[in-house]
């Protein structure tokens, strides 16, 4: 009887040893799989961030006009509290009418802001106003003494994307033969003011750092870089 009990106890011990070995093996396998998944998570995260780059903007003229019309239409639906003006356009108009003296003669859009009553309100120099209005609604700008696209504009005038300035130059040159004021606007903006523009470049930056300050994950972001323009 004692002998059978001894054998039974030995079999139970062997079964427990095998069970613990299997559990240890499965636990190690799970830990290994979890560590592999964790390492791949950081790798995939880095690739995901790096692949999410934004290419340099293309600004077709027709798309810009459509965007402006949609923005103004949306602003007109939300009337402001003062004077019945649209919230977006009203604030812009009140802010820019502070310096009407800085407007070029015969224009309502060429100068410091605009003095137009509506988007289609152009001055006697309609061709020049058309060019200035399109340039005024460039979607990529950095206003004076503000920071945007990782660049601080310390100048007294607004910086625009070089593609917007390039289209502005081409527009002025097309109508400069019919208007002397258009040629003067181009000379003052590009030559006298020495206006700069900016382009987008991709720069590497740290997304996640370790406990010791070492960067673990890198990403890319768009940064504005100043570029010198040609004379008019």
From TrEMBL:
Annotated stretches, region: Disordered: 73-96
The reply to whether Lipid metabolism figures as a keyword in the UniProt entry is yes
Quote the cellular component terms of the Gene Ontology held in the record. Answer: extracellular region
From what superkingdom does this record's organism come?
Eukaryota
Chief localization class? secreted
Membrane-spanning segments: none
Drop me one GO molecular function for this one: metal ion binding
Top enzyme class of this protein?
Answer: hydrolase
Q: Which terms does the UniProt entry file under GO BP?
A: arachidonate secretion; phospholipid metabolic process
- Might you give the EC number(s) for this enzyme? 3.1.1.4
Q: Which cofactor does it need?
A: Ca(2+)
Gene3D superfamilies per UniProt: Phospholipase A2 domain
Record PROSITE patterns: PA2_HIS
Question: Where in or outside the cell?
Answer: Secreted
> What CDD domains does this protein map onto?
PLA2_bee_venom_like
Tell me which UniProt keywords the record has, alphabetically: Calcium, Disulfide bond, Hydrolase, Lipid metabolism, Metal-binding, Secreted
Q: Domain named Phospholipase A2-like central: which ranges? A: 104-199
Keyword flag Translocase: no
Its protein name is: phospholipase A2
Instruction: Give the originating organism.
Output: Octopus vulgaris (Common octopus)
